[in-house]
Amino acid sequence: QKEVEQNSGPLSVPEGAIASLNCTYSDRGSQSFFWYRQYSGKSPELIMFIYSNGDKEDGRFTAQLNKASQYVSLLIRDSQPSDSATYLCAVNWGVANFGNEKLTFGTGTRLTIIP
Amino acid sequence: DAGVTQSPTHLIKTRGQQVTLRCSPKSGHDTVSWYQQALGQGPQFIFQYYEEEERQRGNFPDRFSGHQFPNYSSELNVNALLLGDSALYLCASSFRDRTNYGYTFGSGTRLTVV
Questions:
Q1: Are strands B10-13 and B109-113 parallel, antiparallel or unpaired?
Q2: Which residues of chain B lie closer than 8 angstroms to A46, CB-CB?
Q3: Which of B96, B102, B106 sits opposite A46 (nearest CB)?
Q4: pLDDT in tens, A26-85
């Protein structure tokens, strides 16, 4: 059974601080990894994807991947109240093709930024 | 540029009935994937359509079926509805074999089975 594990939270972080979200996965054959943000009652929105070991930065967001430890994380710097949402980690188990991923999602971590 | 469009937005059905949900992909996208998201859970992959054929399928029973039309739009059909089928159904579109990792999700259809 391929699994993706996330701490469900809630995770509370003061405004301006760094929020750290973590995700582990069960299959070493995983190819690509995604972070989605989902506001309450809305659909998921892609924030970052990563497929190579190391860090990938995009604005205030940094994704970190460690395939040996089967661990992927998302850091949000200078957290804003608008970052309050559920963050979903997703893993593509199949071949690293583009556009035809079959994603397995974690249950999500609920993040609250405290003004 | 229109995003992914799903209809209807909300639906209430009775146990045992059948339902059809519809999805129009983002302009230029040719692949449609369907996900079921129960309350408090992450989305679960149902199936994926490309070139009018089901290409990949998740662990869902045969009561869940789909179709893709020549214009890339798609339908999800669920027969013999169960109370446990109540969920947010998400359609996601993408462009196969292009470097645009990840999907664009539609706003979803909230299905309630009573």
A1: parallel
A2: 102-104
A3: B102
A4: 987 777 899 999 999 899 999 998 988 899 999 999 999 999 999 999 999 999 999 999
Of B41, B58, B94, which is closest to A99 when you measure between CB atoms?
B94
pLDDT in tens, chain B (114 residues): 569 999 999 999 999 999 999 999 998 888 999 999 999 999 999 999 999 999 889 999 999 999 999 999 999 999 999 999 999 999 999 876 655 566 889 999 999 999
Question: Do A49 and A33 contact (CB within 8 A), yes or no?
Answer: yes
Best A36, A100, A104, A110 residue to mutate vs chain B (most B CBs within 10 Å): A100
Q: Burial of B56 by CB count in 10 Å (0-12 exposed, 13-18 middle, 19+ buried)?
A: middle
Sign of CA dihedral B59, B61, B64, B70: positive
Interface contact B31, partner A, CB < 8 A: yes
Do B31 and A106 make contact, defined as CB atoms within 8 angstroms?
Answer: no
Question: Which two three-digit tokens encode residue A93?
Answer: 């188990």
Q: What is the dihedral of CA B68, B29, A23, B88, to 10 degrees?
A: -50
A45 interfaces chain B, CB cutoff of 8 Å = yes
Amino acid at B18: Q
Structure tokens belonging to residue B30: 């040719």
Q: Supply B32's token pair.
A: 């449609």
